[in-house]
Amino acid sequence: MRATTYVALHQLDSAAVELDTLLARLRRREEEHVTHIYESKALLYYAMGLLQASRRDQTAARTAFERALIEDLSFYPAHIALGQLNFGRDPVGSLRELEQAAAGGASDPEARYEYGAALVRAKRVPEGTAELRAAIGLEPYFADPYFWLGEGLLAQGDSSAALATFQTYVARCSARGVAAGNRARASHGASAITGGVNG
Fold first, then answer.
1. What span, in angstroms and rounded, lies between the C-alpha atoms of 62 and 26?
2. Are the C-beta atoms of residues 106 and 112 closer than 8 Å to each other?
3. For residue range 32-56, what is the model confidence (pLDDT) as tens digits?
4. Under a CB-based contact definition with an 8 Å cutoff, are residues 130 and 162 in contact?
5. Cα distance between residue 105 and residue 170, in whole Å
6. Please, which of 27, 29, 48, 187 could form a disulfide with 64 given CB 3.0 to 4.6 Å?
7. Sign of the C-alpha dihedral, residues 162, 171, 119, 132?
8. pTM for the whole thing?
9. CB under 8 Å to 166, separation ≥6 — which residues?
10. For the segment 128-187, what is each residue's pLDDT rounded down to a tens digit?
11. Which residues are CB-neighbours of 85 under 8 A, at least 6 positions away?
């Protein structure tokens, strides 16, 4: 597919045109030929949503993710994407999308993590920490849930568990070399906790 080549070349506008052309061709074929099997275009709409989000066109991204869900309501990656996209704009709707993603992707640590982190940010800490623990149970080397679990434990006043969780997060990130911003926040939080415990 030429769209992937354009993405690799950072020609996102051209990639969007290619995906749009492919989707139009598939819709036309559906209208012209009656079949007994429906071929979902959810993945293509999802790809279009990711592409539009990369182009910083939030409206087009939202529309594409919604079209993916019209194609297949159980396609939980589109629920995750909509939840992330809408968090600052519509926190209640965002949590609803992420809850659906976690239900549909119950065995996917990313889906559980996204929902858990959003719950902690929304001050629904007990629910959030449960989701984050589930994400860690599914993939213990996935660093991101440890950060938000540490934040949740800190909010619940469990500073010793938060310290251990932040330290685990920093160790996991150091091994992967990612998330410098949260790693610095976690290190600072761990230092503050240690200073409060020792001081």
1. 21
2. yes
3. 777 777 777 888 889 889 888 988 9
4. no
5. 26
6. 48
7. negative
8. 0.78
9. 146, 147, 150, 186, 187, 189, 190, 193
10. 999 999 999 999 999 999 999 999 999 999 999 999 999 999 888 876 655 555 656 666
11. 53, 58, 61, 62, 65
Amino acid at residue number 178 = V
